[in-house]
Amino acid sequence: MSVQKKRTSIFYIKKAYS
């Protein structure tokens, strides 16, 4: 679960930075 949450966080951060 921790890994999935981290992956989701990175995905959202990348989308926001895009």
From TrEMBL:
> Which UniProt keywords are listed?
Chloroplast, Plastid, Ribonucleoprotein, Ribosomal protein
Name a GO CC annotation attached to this entry: ribosome
Which domain of life does the protein's organism represent? Eukaryota
The answer to whether keyword Chloroplast applies is: yes
What is the name listed in the Swiss-Prot or TrEMBL entry for this protein?
Ribosomal protein L32
- Source organism (scientific name): Elaeocarpus glabripetalus
Q: Which gene encodes it?
A: rpl32
